[in-house]
Design brief:
Blueprint (H helix, E strand, L loop, with lengths): L1 E4 L4 E2 L6 E2 L3 E4 L3 H13 L4 E3 L15 E3 L7 E5 L4 E5 L4 H10 L2 E2 L11 H6 L16 E7 L5 E4 L5 H7 L8 E8 L1 E2 L2 E10 H6 L1 H7 L2 E6 L5 E10 L8 H25 L4 H11 L3 E5 L1 H5 L7 E9 L3 H14 L8 E6 L14 E9 L5 H13 L3 E2 L9 H7 L3 H11 L8 H7 L2
Parallel strand pairs: 4-6, 5-6
Antiparallel strand pairs: 1-4, 2-3, 7-8, 8-12, 9-13, 10-11, 10-12, 14-16, 14-17, 15-16, 15-19, 18-20, 18-21, 19-20
Helix pairs in contact: 7-8, 10-11, 12-14
Protein backbone atom coordinates (compact mmCIF):
# COMPACT_ATOMS: atom_id res chain seq x y z
CA UNK A 1 0.00 0.00 0.00
CA UNK A 2 1.28 3.44 -0.90
CA UNK A 3 1.15 5.87 2.03
CA UNK A 4 2.19 9.48 2.39
CA UNK A 5 2.34 11.63 5.50
CA UNK A 6 0.74 15.07 5.66
CA UNK A 7 1.75 17.04 2.58
CA UNK A 8 0.00 19.73 0.59
CA UNK A 9 -3.75 20.16 0.87
CA UNK A 10 -6.12 18.14 -1.27
CA UNK A 11 -8.26 20.28 -3.58
CA UNK A 12 -11.40 19.41 -5.55
CA UNK A 13 -11.89 20.00 -9.29
CA UNK A 14 -13.63 23.34 -8.86
CA UNK A 15 -11.08 24.56 -6.33
CA UNK A 16 -13.67 25.58 -3.72
CA UNK A 17 -12.94 22.73 -1.26
CA UNK A 18 -9.58 21.91 0.30
CA UNK A 19 -8.54 19.47 3.00
CA UNK A 20 -5.37 18.73 4.92
CA UNK A 21 -5.38 14.99 5.67
CA UNK A 22 -3.01 13.58 8.29
CA UNK A 23 -2.00 11.00 5.72
CA UNK A 24 -3.04 9.71 2.33
CA UNK A 25 -3.17 6.02 1.42
CA UNK A 26 -3.55 4.33 -1.96
CA UNK A 27 -4.37 0.68 -1.25
CA UNK A 28 -3.64 -1.93 -3.87
CA UNK A 29 -6.09 -4.52 -2.54
CA UNK A 30 -9.32 -4.75 -0.58
CA UNK A 31 -7.37 -6.15 2.37
CA UNK A 32 -5.00 -3.20 2.36
CA UNK A 33 -7.97 -0.82 2.27
CA UNK A 34 -9.61 -2.61 5.20
CA UNK A 35 -6.36 -2.39 7.15
CA UNK A 36 -6.17 1.36 6.42
CA UNK A 37 -9.68 1.83 7.81
CA UNK A 38 -9.05 -0.12 11.03
CA UNK A 39 -5.69 1.57 11.47
CA UNK A 40 -7.33 4.97 11.19
CA UNK A 41 -10.02 4.04 13.70
CA UNK A 42 -7.41 2.72 16.16
CA UNK A 43 -5.54 6.03 15.92
CA UNK A 44 -8.71 8.02 16.52
CA UNK A 45 -8.72 9.36 12.95
CA UNK A 46 -11.57 9.62 10.45
CA UNK A 47 -11.21 7.92 7.07
CA UNK A 48 -12.70 9.13 3.78
CA UNK A 49 -12.38 7.85 0.24
CA UNK A 50 -12.07 10.45 -2.50
CA UNK A 51 -12.35 9.88 -6.23
CA UNK A 52 -11.64 12.53 -8.84
CA UNK A 53 -12.91 15.44 -6.73
CA UNK A 54 -15.78 16.42 -9.00
CA UNK A 55 -18.14 17.11 -6.09
CA UNK A 56 -18.60 20.77 -5.18
CA UNK A 57 -19.37 19.90 -1.55
CA UNK A 58 -16.96 18.73 1.13
CA UNK A 59 -18.50 15.24 1.12
CA UNK A 60 -15.07 13.57 0.86
CA UNK A 61 -12.95 16.07 2.81
CA UNK A 62 -11.11 14.86 5.90
CA UNK A 63 -8.34 15.84 8.28
CA UNK A 64 -7.75 12.15 8.98
CA UNK A 65 -6.87 9.42 6.49
CA UNK A 66 -7.64 10.19 2.85
CA UNK A 67 -8.12 7.00 0.84
CA UNK A 68 -7.42 7.16 -2.89
CA UNK A 69 -9.05 4.13 -4.59
CA UNK A 70 -7.35 4.50 -7.96
CA UNK A 71 -5.38 1.25 -7.71
CA UNK A 72 -8.65 -0.62 -7.11
CA UNK A 73 -9.65 -0.13 -10.72
CA UNK A 74 -10.41 -2.12 -13.83
CA UNK A 75 -12.69 -4.88 -14.97
CA UNK A 76 -13.24 -7.72 -12.52
CA UNK A 77 -15.77 -9.87 -14.36
CA UNK A 78 -18.37 -9.98 -17.12
CA UNK A 79 -21.48 -12.13 -16.76
CA UNK A 80 -23.25 -12.01 -20.11
CA UNK A 81 -25.97 -14.42 -19.01
CA UNK A 82 -26.89 -12.19 -16.07
CA UNK A 83 -26.26 -8.99 -18.02
CA UNK A 84 -23.84 -7.63 -15.43
CA UNK A 85 -20.29 -6.32 -15.23
CA UNK A 86 -18.21 -5.87 -12.04
CA UNK A 87 -15.50 -3.20 -11.82
CA UNK A 88 -13.18 -1.85 -9.17
CA UNK A 89 -14.45 1.22 -7.34
CA UNK A 90 -11.60 3.45 -8.48
CA UNK A 91 -12.35 2.94 -12.17
CA UNK A 92 -12.95 6.22 -13.99
CA UNK A 93 -16.24 6.37 -15.85
CA UNK A 94 -14.35 7.24 -19.03
CA UNK A 95 -12.31 4.04 -18.76
CA UNK A 96 -15.38 2.03 -17.76
CA UNK A 97 -17.36 3.21 -20.77
CA UNK A 98 -14.52 2.41 -23.16
CA UNK A 99 -14.07 -1.02 -21.58
CA UNK A 100 -17.77 -1.75 -21.91
CA UNK A 101 -17.73 -0.65 -25.54
CA UNK A 102 -14.81 -2.97 -26.27
CA UNK A 103 -16.97 -5.78 -24.86
CA UNK A 104 -19.95 -4.72 -27.01
CA UNK A 105 -21.84 -3.57 -23.90
CA UNK A 106 -23.19 -0.33 -22.44
CA UNK A 107 -24.91 1.19 -19.45
CA UNK A 108 -28.51 2.13 -20.19
CA UNK A 109 -28.11 5.72 -19.06
CA UNK A 110 -25.33 7.93 -17.76
CA UNK A 111 -24.49 11.50 -16.79
CA UNK A 112 -23.02 14.15 -19.05
CA UNK A 113 -19.40 13.92 -17.89
CA UNK A 114 -17.23 10.88 -17.26
CA UNK A 115 -14.23 12.06 -15.27
CA UNK A 116 -15.55 10.69 -11.95
CA UNK A 117 -14.70 7.33 -10.45
CA UNK A 118 -17.60 4.89 -10.49
CA UNK A 119 -17.77 4.85 -6.68
CA UNK A 120 -17.76 8.62 -6.40
CA UNK A 121 -20.43 8.97 -9.07
CA UNK A 122 -22.87 6.54 -7.48
CA UNK A 123 -22.21 7.67 -3.91
CA UNK A 124 -23.36 11.22 -4.69
CA UNK A 125 -26.28 10.25 -6.93
CA UNK A 126 -24.85 11.23 -10.34
CA UNK A 127 -27.51 11.08 -13.02
CA UNK A 128 -28.30 11.98 -16.58
CA UNK A 129 -31.72 12.54 -18.04
CA UNK A 130 -34.29 9.88 -18.89
CA UNK A 131 -37.96 9.16 -19.31
CA UNK A 132 -37.71 5.52 -18.28
CA UNK A 133 -34.05 4.96 -17.32
CA UNK A 134 -32.73 6.35 -14.06
CA UNK A 135 -29.44 7.33 -12.42
CA UNK A 136 -26.17 5.40 -12.51
CA UNK A 137 -26.85 4.13 -8.97
CA UNK A 138 -30.21 2.67 -10.07
CA UNK A 139 -28.27 0.41 -12.45
CA UNK A 140 -26.29 -1.22 -9.61
CA UNK A 141 -26.95 -4.91 -8.98
CA UNK A 142 -24.32 -5.53 -6.30
CA UNK A 143 -21.48 -3.88 -4.44
CA UNK A 144 -18.59 -4.68 -2.15
CA UNK A 145 -18.21 -2.48 0.92
CA UNK A 146 -15.51 -2.18 3.60
CA UNK A 147 -17.16 -1.13 6.87
CA UNK A 148 -15.77 0.65 9.93
CA UNK A 149 -14.60 -2.52 11.68
CA UNK A 150 -12.72 -3.72 8.58
CA UNK A 151 -15.38 -6.21 7.51
CA UNK A 152 -15.96 -6.71 3.79
CA UNK A 153 -19.65 -6.97 2.93
CA UNK A 154 -20.90 -8.25 -0.41
CA UNK A 155 -24.33 -6.69 -0.89
CA UNK A 156 -27.18 -7.17 -3.31
CA UNK A 157 -30.97 -7.32 -3.32
CA UNK A 158 -30.70 -10.76 -1.68
CA UNK A 159 -27.49 -10.43 0.39
CA UNK A 160 -27.50 -7.76 3.11
CA UNK A 161 -30.43 -6.15 1.26
CA UNK A 162 -30.91 -3.30 3.74
CA UNK A 163 -27.27 -2.26 3.31
CA UNK A 164 -27.52 -2.64 -0.47
CA UNK A 165 -30.62 -0.45 -0.57
CA UNK A 166 -28.90 2.36 1.30
CA UNK A 167 -25.33 2.10 -0.02
CA UNK A 168 -26.22 2.62 -3.67
CA UNK A 169 -26.33 6.35 -2.82
CA UNK A 170 -24.39 6.24 0.44
CA UNK A 171 -22.50 9.57 0.54
CA UNK A 172 -19.47 7.65 1.83
CA UNK A 173 -21.23 7.42 5.20
CA UNK A 174 -21.62 3.64 5.38
CA UNK A 175 -18.16 2.49 4.37
CA UNK A 176 -15.75 2.47 1.46
CA UNK A 177 -17.01 0.87 -1.75
CA UNK A 178 -14.37 -1.37 -3.33
CA UNK A 179 -16.27 -2.88 -6.28
CA UNK A 180 -19.59 -2.37 -8.05
CA UNK A 181 -21.67 -4.71 -10.20
CA UNK A 182 -23.71 -2.88 -12.82
CA UNK A 183 -26.55 -4.03 -15.03
CA UNK A 184 -25.50 -3.62 -18.66
CA UNK A 185 -26.97 -4.35 -22.06
CA UNK A 186 -25.70 -4.93 -25.59
CA UNK A 187 -24.30 -1.71 -26.99
CA UNK A 188 -26.84 0.30 -28.97
CA UNK A 189 -27.01 3.47 -31.02
CA UNK A 190 -28.51 6.80 -30.02
CA UNK A 191 -29.56 9.57 -32.33
CA UNK A 192 -29.05 13.01 -30.82
CA UNK A 193 -31.12 15.87 -32.14
CA UNK A 194 -29.92 19.24 -30.85
CA UNK A 195 -31.67 22.45 -31.79
CA UNK A 196 -32.41 25.92 -30.47
CA UNK A 197 -35.87 26.68 -29.11
CA UNK A 198 -37.42 29.70 -27.42
CA UNK A 199 -37.99 29.78 -23.67
CA UNK A 200 -41.72 30.12 -24.24
CA UNK A 201 -41.90 27.13 -26.56
CA UNK A 202 -39.77 24.76 -24.50
CA UNK A 203 -41.63 25.53 -21.27
CA UNK A 204 -45.02 25.25 -22.95
CA UNK A 205 -44.08 21.90 -24.50
CA UNK A 206 -41.91 20.52 -21.69
CA UNK A 207 -44.28 17.72 -20.70
CA UNK A 208 -44.68 16.57 -24.30
CA UNK A 209 -40.96 16.72 -25.05
CA UNK A 210 -40.06 14.82 -21.87
CA UNK A 211 -42.72 12.19 -22.56
CA UNK A 212 -42.09 11.64 -26.27
CA UNK A 213 -38.32 11.28 -26.01
CA UNK A 214 -36.27 8.66 -24.18
CA UNK A 215 -33.85 11.35 -23.02
CA UNK A 216 -34.69 15.04 -23.13
CA UNK A 217 -32.87 18.02 -21.63
CA UNK A 218 -32.52 21.70 -22.29
CA UNK A 219 -30.40 24.67 -21.33
CA UNK A 220 -31.81 28.17 -20.86
CA UNK A 221 -29.49 31.17 -21.15
CA UNK A 222 -30.42 33.77 -18.51
CA UNK A 223 -31.10 37.32 -19.73
CA UNK A 224 -32.35 35.88 -23.03
CA UNK A 225 -35.22 33.95 -24.57
CA UNK A 226 -32.78 31.37 -25.97
CA UNK A 227 -32.73 27.67 -25.09
CA UNK A 228 -30.78 24.76 -26.52
CA UNK A 229 -32.60 21.42 -26.51
CA UNK A 230 -31.26 17.89 -26.83
CA UNK A 231 -33.30 14.77 -27.63
CA UNK A 232 -31.59 11.36 -27.50
CA UNK A 233 -33.47 8.33 -28.79
CA UNK A 234 -32.45 4.81 -29.72
CA UNK A 235 -31.71 4.22 -33.36
CA UNK A 236 -31.44 1.21 -35.64
CA UNK A 237 -28.61 3.00 -37.40
CA UNK A 238 -26.50 3.34 -39.34
CA UNK A 239 -24.04 5.22 -37.17
CA UNK A 240 -23.46 8.80 -38.29
CA UNK A 241 -21.05 10.32 -35.75
CA UNK A 242 -20.02 13.94 -35.70
CA UNK A 243 -17.13 14.80 -37.96
CA UNK A 244 -13.87 15.70 -36.23
CA UNK A 245 -14.04 19.35 -37.29
CA UNK A 246 -17.71 19.82 -36.38
CA UNK A 247 -17.24 18.16 -33.00
CA UNK A 248 -14.18 20.30 -32.27
CA UNK A 249 -15.95 23.54 -33.21
CA UNK A 250 -19.05 22.86 -31.10
CA UNK A 251 -17.64 20.89 -28.15
CA UNK A 252 -14.18 22.40 -27.78
CA UNK A 253 -14.15 25.84 -29.37
CA UNK A 254 -17.70 27.06 -28.62
CA UNK A 255 -18.60 25.06 -25.49
CA UNK A 256 -15.18 25.23 -23.84
CA UNK A 257 -12.61 27.61 -25.37
CA UNK A 258 -14.76 30.52 -26.49
CA UNK A 259 -17.27 30.03 -23.68
CA UNK A 260 -14.51 30.12 -21.08
CA UNK A 261 -13.17 33.34 -22.58
CA UNK A 262 -16.52 35.11 -22.54
CA UNK A 263 -17.18 33.91 -18.97
CA UNK A 264 -13.88 35.47 -17.94
CA UNK A 265 -14.97 38.75 -19.53
CA UNK A 266 -18.29 38.55 -17.68
CA UNK A 267 -16.51 37.97 -14.38
CA UNK A 268 -14.34 41.05 -14.96
CA UNK A 269 -17.21 43.22 -16.27
CA UNK A 270 -20.54 41.97 -14.82
CA UNK A 271 -22.52 44.64 -16.68
CA UNK A 272 -21.54 42.94 -19.93
CA UNK A 273 -23.09 39.59 -18.99
CA UNK A 274 -26.56 40.10 -20.57
CA UNK A 275 -25.00 41.06 -23.90
CA UNK A 276 -22.60 38.12 -23.68
CA UNK A 277 -25.52 35.78 -22.92
CA UNK A 278 -27.30 36.90 -26.06
CA UNK A 279 -24.22 36.01 -28.10
CA UNK A 280 -23.56 32.62 -26.45
CA UNK A 281 -27.24 31.70 -26.58
CA UNK A 282 -27.15 31.99 -30.36
CA UNK A 283 -23.75 30.37 -30.88
CA UNK A 284 -24.72 26.69 -30.95
CA UNK A 285 -26.58 25.64 -34.08
CA UNK A 286 -28.83 22.66 -34.75
CA UNK A 287 -27.16 19.32 -35.38
CA UNK A 288 -28.13 15.65 -35.58
CA UNK A 289 -25.82 12.67 -35.19
CA UNK A 290 -25.94 8.95 -34.32
CA UNK A 291 -23.33 7.19 -32.23
CA UNK A 292 -22.74 4.73 -29.38
CA UNK A 293 -24.20 5.81 -26.01
CA UNK A 294 -21.28 7.30 -24.11
CA UNK A 295 -20.31 9.43 -27.11
CA UNK A 296 -23.82 10.89 -27.16
CA UNK A 297 -24.58 11.18 -23.43
CA UNK A 298 -21.27 12.75 -22.40
CA UNK A 299 -19.41 15.93 -23.36
CA UNK A 300 -16.10 17.50 -22.33
CA UNK A 301 -16.39 20.13 -19.57
CA UNK A 302 -13.19 22.15 -19.34
CA UNK A 303 -14.55 25.49 -18.12
CA UNK A 304 -14.37 25.46 -14.30
CA UNK A 305 -17.51 26.47 -12.44
CA UNK A 306 -19.53 26.06 -9.25
CA UNK A 307 -22.91 24.36 -9.34
CA UNK A 308 -26.10 23.90 -7.35
CA UNK A 309 -28.76 21.44 -8.48
CA UNK A 310 -32.14 20.59 -7.02
CA UNK A 311 -34.45 17.68 -7.74
CA UNK A 312 -38.10 18.74 -7.84
CA UNK A 313 -41.36 16.90 -8.34
CA UNK A 314 -41.52 16.81 -12.13
CA UNK A 315 -44.73 18.80 -12.37
CA UNK A 316 -43.06 21.70 -10.50
CA UNK A 317 -40.20 22.16 -12.96
CA UNK A 318 -41.65 24.78 -15.28
CA UNK A 319 -43.10 26.89 -12.47
CA UNK A 320 -39.76 26.87 -10.64
CA UNK A 321 -37.85 27.80 -13.78
CA UNK A 322 -40.19 30.72 -14.47
CA UNK A 323 -39.75 31.90 -10.88
CA UNK A 324 -35.98 31.66 -11.27
CA UNK A 325 -36.12 33.73 -14.45
CA UNK A 326 -38.17 36.38 -12.70
CA UNK A 327 -35.86 36.63 -9.69
CA UNK A 328 -32.75 36.92 -11.88
CA UNK A 329 -34.23 39.94 -13.60
CA UNK A 330 -35.83 41.46 -10.49
CA UNK A 331 -32.61 41.30 -8.46
CA UNK A 332 -30.46 42.20 -11.47
CA UNK A 333 -28.29 39.12 -11.00
CA UNK A 334 -25.66 38.60 -13.67
CA UNK A 335 -25.53 34.98 -14.82
CA UNK A 336 -23.35 33.90 -17.73
CA UNK A 337 -23.90 30.13 -17.41
CA UNK A 338 -27.07 28.47 -18.75
CA UNK A 339 -29.59 26.75 -16.45
CA UNK A 340 -29.80 22.99 -17.12
CA UNK A 341 -33.10 21.08 -16.93
CA UNK A 342 -33.28 17.26 -16.94
CA UNK A 343 -35.67 14.51 -15.81
CA UNK A 344 -35.61 11.08 -14.15
CA UNK A 345 -38.21 8.45 -13.27
CA UNK A 346 -38.87 7.52 -9.65
CA UNK A 347 -36.51 4.94 -8.14
CA UNK A 348 -36.37 2.92 -4.90
CA UNK A 349 -33.07 4.14 -3.39
CA UNK A 350 -33.56 5.81 0.02
CA UNK A 351 -31.31 8.84 -0.56
CA UNK A 352 -31.60 9.07 -4.32
CA UNK A 353 -32.84 12.51 -5.33
CA UNK A 354 -35.50 10.69 -7.39
CA UNK A 355 -36.51 8.38 -4.53
CA UNK A 356 -40.21 7.63 -4.78
CA UNK A 357 -41.14 10.38 -7.22
CA UNK A 358 -40.85 11.33 -10.88
CA UNK A 359 -38.29 14.08 -10.91
CA UNK A 360 -37.05 17.13 -12.78
CA UNK A 361 -33.63 18.60 -12.10
CA UNK A 362 -32.79 22.29 -12.27
CA UNK A 363 -29.08 23.08 -12.14
CA UNK A 364 -27.59 26.55 -11.79
CA UNK A 365 -23.93 27.31 -12.41
CA UNK A 366 -21.54 30.20 -11.95
CA UNK A 367 -18.12 30.65 -13.49
CA UNK A 368 -15.35 29.95 -11.00
CA UNK A 369 -14.25 33.15 -9.28
CA UNK A 370 -17.47 35.04 -10.05
CA UNK A 371 -19.75 35.95 -7.09
CA UNK A 372 -22.31 33.19 -6.77
CA UNK A 373 -23.87 33.34 -3.30
CA UNK A 374 -26.74 35.74 -4.08
CA UNK A 375 -27.75 33.74 -7.15
CA UNK A 376 -27.51 30.34 -5.50
CA UNK A 377 -29.36 31.58 -2.41
CA UNK A 378 -32.19 32.93 -4.56
CA UNK A 379 -32.37 29.67 -6.51
CA UNK A 380 -32.36 27.59 -3.33
CA UNK A 381 -35.23 29.62 -1.87
CA UNK A 382 -37.32 28.77 -4.93
CA UNK A 383 -36.33 25.10 -5.00
CA UNK A 384 -37.01 24.44 -1.34
CA UNK A 385 -40.43 26.07 -1.63
CA UNK A 386 -41.25 23.27 -4.11
CA UNK A 387 -39.96 20.50 -1.81
CA UNK A 388 -36.66 20.26 -3.66
CA UNK A 389 -33.90 17.82 -2.78
CA UNK A 390 -30.33 19.07 -3.29
CA UNK A 391 -27.82 17.04 -5.24
CA UNK A 392 -25.49 15.49 -2.64
CA UNK A 393 -22.36 16.51 -4.51
CA UNK A 394 -23.37 20.07 -5.39
CA UNK A 395 -23.54 23.22 -3.32
CA UNK A 396 -26.51 23.72 -1.03
CA UNK A 397 -27.33 24.96 2.45
CA UNK A 398 -29.74 22.29 3.69
CA UNK A 399 -29.32 20.29 6.88
CA UNK A 400 -30.61 17.02 8.34
CA UNK A 401 -33.78 18.61 9.71
CA UNK A 402 -34.82 19.79 6.25
CA UNK A 403 -33.66 16.65 4.42
CA UNK A 404 -35.54 14.33 6.77
CA UNK A 405 -38.70 16.12 5.69
CA UNK A 406 -38.18 15.65 1.93
CA UNK A 407 -36.85 12.07 2.06
CA UNK A 408 -39.52 9.66 3.36
CA UNK A 409 -36.85 6.95 3.89
CA UNK A 410 -34.28 9.21 5.57
CA UNK A 411 -34.57 7.41 8.93
CA UNK A 412 -34.09 4.07 7.20
CA UNK A 413 -30.73 5.27 5.89
CA UNK A 414 -29.55 6.74 9.18
CA UNK A 415 -30.49 3.51 10.99
CA UNK A 416 -28.19 1.56 8.66
CA UNK A 417 -25.47 4.13 9.30
CA UNK A 418 -25.87 3.87 13.06
CA UNK A 419 -25.43 0.10 12.81
CA UNK A 420 -22.46 0.08 10.42
CA UNK A 421 -20.56 3.11 11.70
CA UNK A 422 -21.66 3.97 15.24
CA UNK A 423 -18.36 5.76 15.98
CA UNK A 424 -18.49 7.80 12.75
CA UNK A 425 -15.17 6.58 11.40
CA UNK A 426 -16.41 7.80 8.01
CA UNK A 427 -17.83 11.05 9.36
CA UNK A 428 -16.89 14.63 8.53
CA UNK A 429 -18.53 18.06 8.98
CA UNK A 430 -20.54 17.77 5.75
CA UNK A 431 -22.08 14.47 6.80
CA UNK A 432 -22.77 15.84 10.27
CA UNK A 433 -24.75 18.66 8.68
CA UNK A 434 -26.76 16.62 6.18
CA UNK A 435 -27.27 13.40 8.18
CA UNK A 436 -27.12 14.62 11.77
CA UNK A 437 -25.01 13.10 14.50
Amino acid sequence: MTETARTSAWRNWAGNVTAGPARTVTPGSVRELADAVTSAASAGLRAKAVGSGHSFTAAAATDGVLIRPHRLAGLRSVDRAAGTVTVGAGTRLADFNRTLSAQGLSLTNMGDIMEQTVSGAVSTGTHGTGRDSASIAAQIRGLELVTADGSVLTCSATEHPEVFAAARVGLGALGVITAITFAVEPEFLLTAQEEPMSFGQVTAEFDRLATENEHFEFYWFPHTDYCTTKRNNRSTGPAAPLGRLGAWVDDELLSNGLFGAVCAVGRAVPAAVPAIARVTGRALSARTYTDIPYKVFTSPRRVRFLEMEYALPRDAAVAALRELRAVIERRRLRVAFPVEVRTAPADDIPLSTASGRDTAYLAVHMYRGAPYRAYFSAAEEIMTAHGGRPHWGKLHGRDAAYLAGVYPRFAEFTAVRDRLDPDRVFGNPYLRRVLGD
